[in-house]
Every structure is written in C-alpha cells, then in structure tokens.
Design brief:
Its main location: nucleus. This protein has 143 residues and is an all-alpha fold. Helix content is 73%, strand content 0%. The longest helix is centred in the middle third of the chain and has 46 residues, at 64-109.
Length: 143
Amino acid sequence: MDYDGSGSSDNEQHTLVDAKKRENKICHRHTPQQIQKLEGYFKECPNPGESQRRKLCKELNLDQDQIKYWFQNKRTQRKAQDERSSNILLHGENNKIRCENEAMLDVLKNVLCPACGGPSFGRDKRERNLQKLRLENAILKDM
C-alpha cells in the first residue's frame, strides 16, 4: 500500500473526498405540479428561449439552470425513445422482408423451365446461356 505518511492510503483519501462531494451536492427533486407544468410546456415548446425559461423560473420557483437542464434532459429522453421506436419498426420491417426473401428463394428453387417444362437452369448455366445469346445477337446484328 502507498502511504502518504498520514496513516491513510491514497485510495482512502479519494473515497473520503468523493463522499464529501456527494454530501455537498444537493439533489433537487421537482414536485408533481412542477413536472406537470414543465411537461405541458414541453409539449408546446421543447426548446424554450431565455425569456420563456425566466418566466417558468418565476412560476415554478426554480433556478434557470434547473429549467435549462430539465428541458435538455427531456429532449434527450424523447430522442432516445424515438430512436427505440424507430428501431423496433425497422426491425419488424426487416424481419418481414427477410421472410419474403426466403419465400421467393424457395419459389425460385422450384421454378420450371418455361420452354420445355423441365427443371430450371442453375444460375451459372443461365449466365452461360445469356452470354451465348448475347454473342449470337451481336453476330446477327453484324450480318
């Protein structure tokens, strides 16, 4: 252990300093009436200007910083909630498209050749046939 000569370690001193900071920090909880008023105002104006915040300070008996941070936190919460909702919708859409894709792939595996009614060509064979047809087309155009 590292001692500073006072009989306590650095870690203990930091713990004491942190505890004193927590004691000195006053936690302000808003009353239900204040929250209701702030929520109502937020619905009308999520980004109040300085004069609007001052008006709210007087009405709700809060500091300007408390009002400013409440709105800041509320906007952050709303953004996170909107992103979660959006992600849920996109996830559902993604699953739906994935299922449709799988269904189409299954159908493609069972497709019959329209010319002869036999089994379908594989992708490689289809590409070779397309290249062959393009080549024949080019030859015919040159004639």
